[in-house]
Amino acid sequence: MSENVSYTNVHRAFLQACSNHGTLSTSQAFNMYVAICAQHDDSHSIPSEADLASVIEAINERIYRFDQKIALVHYDPTDMDFYVFVSLQESPIDLQQNVFTAPELHFFRVLLRELALSEDHTLALIACLNLTNDTASEGMKPLAKTRAEQLLQEWEQLGYFLTLDDKCYLGPKAVVEFEKYISRNYADVVTRCCLCNVTIFYGVKCASCPQILHKDCMKKYLRRLTNCPACKTLWSVPL
Predict the structure, then answer these.
(1) Domain end marker among 185, 213, 229
(2) Four-point Cα dihedral 187, 116, 111, 174, nearest 10
(3) Quick one: residue 192, left, alpha or beta (phi over 0 = left, psi -120 to 50 = alpha)?
(4) Are residues 71 and 13 part of one domain?
(5) 23: which of 14, 32, 53, 125 lies 20 to 30 Å off by Cα?
(6) Which of 54-63, 140-149, 171-180 has the weakest average pLDDT?
(7) Does residue 160 lie in a domain region?
């Protein structure tokens, strides 16, 4: 960070809020930023979304050295944008060892694995709870399903998973934080968006070929061109 840019209590408070929440929609993040400015900013200027972007940029310059980042991600299952506080380390699961027990962390790993391996990266909620039986094979007592339900709710609040229509999805935090982990461990079942070259978990499929793309990437692409970037036929799938 350049010396002439001050790192204020607004930056510190917003970073703390992102760290505590894990995942915030852009509207939630902006409302939180406005509240933080009202408390800590003596200039009394009217906060804007551009100001928030600058604050996040300054925070990221500070925390990148600690393998952390506040990332902006478009999440296709809800078609919403989120700010996600993520660890950039190779094995972010290990960071939770002081928070969760060994069986709980194993349940997290199994759930992550099964969502990565499923064809559409979703699982029925009941199937997620049945994964607790897998902990017994590791020499541990199976995790109680009531505790598994509590964990799913807690992890959903942090953005790791999403429950929608009795199905479980990888949440916006998992999509960003575990992108490298999943790509490395399950390379055979993941693909990359041909427009942004980032691993794609949820997106939109061309009607004329097997190509799948991030919905947001395709929206931007269609502002300039009208054909599928893979097969070059006219794009017909509504976005």
Answers:
(1) 185
(2) 90
(3) beta
(4) yes
(5) 125
(6) 140-149
(7) yes
Cα three-residue angle 27-4-70, rounded to 5 degrees: 30
**Predicted pLDDT at 184:** 87
Phi, psi of 223, deg, nearest 5: -70, -20
H/E stretch holding 84 reads: strand 80-87
> Are 37 and 96 in a shared domain?
no
Is the pTM of the predicted complex or chain greater than 0.90? Answer: no
Mean of the pLDDT values across residues 13-34?
A: 95
Paired tokens of 156? 């959903």
